[in-house]
Amino acid sequence: MTAAVFIGSVLLIVVGLRTVVQPMIGLVLLGLALALRPRIGQLNPDLPTLREADAPALFDLLGGIADTCGVRPPDTVQLGPAFSVTVTHYGFTRKRCLVVGLPLWAAYPPQQRVAAIAHALAYAAPRHVRSRAFVAMALESLIAGSGTMRANDTAYISWTVNALAFGADEVAAGARNFNIRGKTSEWVLWIPRTAIAATARLLLWLTLPATRGALLEADDAAARTASSGAAVAALNDQDLARPVCMEAHRLVIERKTLATKRSTAAPEQDFREKLARQAARLREQRGGDATRVSLNASRVTRLSAAPRHRAAITLDEPGLTRIADELRLPEKAVVDKMMRDGVAEAQQPIALR
User: Which end of the chain is less congested by CB atoms within 10 angstroms, N or C?
Assistant: First the structure.
């Protein structure tokens, strides 16, 4: 469809160059084709990136988890400031990048980290229809195109001027004309924007059953890899996203504003240990709350009723130490970024994100 719109717009501009209407229609269609162009994913340049040569112990763990889940291991790893574990694609060959959030890495015990990684890798497998190149790029293009055609705050002028000021009438008339043109442009773009948004919703609705199935398959993969208990605990601990990120925000404010006694530990280690202690306190408080209902209650019930799995991948103390050494510099970079930019409010995850 995008190729047809692009070719049609070029033909209208070239063939109808002597007219006025055809080139104008061609320019509108050309803008529509550019808005719907395929998006090639890229690595986030603001996040530290690790490859196998930088972290052999970490990639050895990821390779074992990927083999257990029956998927391809990630090509790169990035550490980020969100409470999430996700897989993104980048480049023309759609290489896989595992993006691990530092708050989640700090809050989860080792086996729950394995469960979170296994879930993310299995959920982004090619058998999940939304992870396939055609559907994924189509969704990205439709969503980005709809956002591109949405009017922003600069489309209108709110101008108040003293009526006795010099040139007040000309300024007011110019502002009115600018707002009229902005309103006209918004109405012109409303039809394609609505069509693009409706197509994106239709594609999401058509792939919803497959997405739910992929979510349950990823739960099973996490249970087979890290054990059923670790997978259930990781699902339950998704509720910690908001309070852990609030604690991270408090630590950032404390570090920036209060002259606290400096710890002997490295800043990233101190930051990670405080988040881990906060997560442990929250688990203890939650254990005594009989009225609590998990956000993923149905998935937890399903995993609890299924046959129990033992851990296929476990993390021993030497392995944890090696991985911690490899992540020391990336963790410092992420902590510095959080100190500079702050901590975004946590969104409730959908699939161990």
Answer: N
Asked if pLDDT for residue 351 goes beyond 50, the answer is no
Who's near 75: CB < 8 A, 6+ residues apart?
51, 95, 96, 97
Cβ-contact 160, 108 below 8 angstroms: no
CB atoms within 10 A of CB 163: 7
Query: What's the pTM value of the predicted model, to 2 decimals?
Result: 0.80
Distance in angstroms (rounded) separating the CA atoms of residues 104 and 272 = 10
Helices in the chain by DSSP H: which ranges? 2-15, 21-35, 56-69, 102-107, 110-123, 133-148, 168-206, 208-226, 228-236, 241-257, 267-287, 297-305, 317-326, 328-341
**Number of Cβ within a 10 Å radius of residue 315:** 16
Residue pair 83/312 in contact by the 8 Å Cβ criterion: no
Instruction: Calculate the alpha carbon distances from 347 to 212, 219, 235, 271 in Å.
Output: 19, 20, 15, 21
Q: Is 18 helix (H, G, I), strand (E, B) or coil?
A: coil
Q: Which amino acid is at 106?
A: A
CB 350 within 8 A of CB 299: no
